[in-house]
Amino acid sequence: MSFSLFSEFSPSDKNAWVQQALKDLKGKDYDKTLLWNTPEGFVVEPYYTDQELQETQLTGLQAAQQKKLGWLNQPVVVYESERATNAAMLAVLQKGVDALTLDLRNTDLYTIEFTKLLYGIKLSDTPLFFQTNGQNAALIRALQTFIAYQMKGGLADDGLATWMTTGQLSETYFAELAAVAIATKASPSFKTICVSSHVFHNAGANAAQELAFALASAVTYADKLTDAGLDPDAVFSKLYFSVSVGTNYFMEIAKLRALRFLWQRVQMGWGIEPKIAYVHAQTSTFYDAAITPNTNLLRATTEAMSAVIGGCDALTVHAYDATFRTPDEFSERIARNISILLKEESYLDRTLDPAAGSYFLENLTQQLAEAAWSLFLEVEEKGGLLAAFEQNFIQNKIEQNATEIIAALQQGTRVMVGVNKFRVDEEVPVKYAPTPETVNEAVSFKLLHPQRIAQTFER
């Protein structure tokens, strides 16, 4: 005898739900009360059914997602000296860390003894990503003098992002990047082409803008590196995305899922077998505050949840006090433990694509993907990322969105806990001065500047 759990319930359609919602609203406007008009320019319903999903696109969305369980807990370690930094890396690797980002940006790599720096760390077991401020070729030469096995990890520099903030880009940059990709061909899990969305996110971009401009950046790398002699497969296998994750919980989940879907669409345009994008996510600094700083912990937690539900491969959680002082051992431990708790207590590493099948999230992903794709095509019509940036198209779009965010906070139509509401002005030991705007008189276009929206309320 068969038994259906839901046999005693009659079917219900969306119209019945809307009618009940109108009754419960007691005269309030449905559109103004329940519809979400997103900064990305589309409208989100409060309730969706399976009839509203486009089956063909849904299949593509789900097929593009991560195909392995879990993510890497990947904090940042800043270089001090060979021995001190080695000790710091070994220590955190014993505390639930799976991978590391090593910040070498303020160091001349020729002064480092890498055998001492990496003593006890095997890059075939522990992925290590290096920030070198353009010293990538020197780094690879140094590593290959003593590492004879396949390395995991990669390079965390994005030359195009640096150009958009400083106006400086070496004429030989892409040729050097191609040479690095060739030099590490024997290590397929060592990514050498980093496409960073942080430069857009931290300047104030919304999710669609961040996706569109990151895709345009990735396509620029593909164009330039194939021109430099690499075949498309070699480029796409070495490329990965590093993405900031903000406070808009559901939109950020959709953003990572849409990124993977759109990246597969781009690859198919090149006529190659699509590879699933490797995505490193990090919690946002754009939304961090120096006032009521403990609220940064709340933001970091929800941002981290969005990242892992969205399917990131690696996650960096910033310390809650990094905005106004050098993080201490406690704040760094709390940051690492957010990722651990999401695994060990929330079990978010036990399911592939946990957002799949949610009618709301699937529709949101579809809408965001199409909005981002439309903007990406606008950039391409203007000649690609470099040309669009030189025309100030990208900067103007981001500036308009950032202005709207700040205005909404000032008017109280948008709430940021601990900044424009529920605020306690705690005394902080050191407050960093605002980052001075970079000016390069040699370029005729505007540059992007990282900011924090809370700064407006901290004066």
From TrEMBL:
InterPro entries: Cbl-dep_enz_cat, MeMalonylCoA_mutase_a/b_cat. Residues 114-437 form the Methylmalonyl-CoA mutase alpha/beta chain catalytic domain. Pfam families: MM_CoA_mutase (PF01642). PANTHER family: METHYLMALONYL-COA MUTASE, LARGE SUBUNIT (PTHR48101:SF1), METHYLMALONYL-COA MUTASE, MITOCHONDRIAL-RELATED (PTHR48101). This is Methylmalonyl-CoA mutase family protein. It comes from Runella salmonicolor.
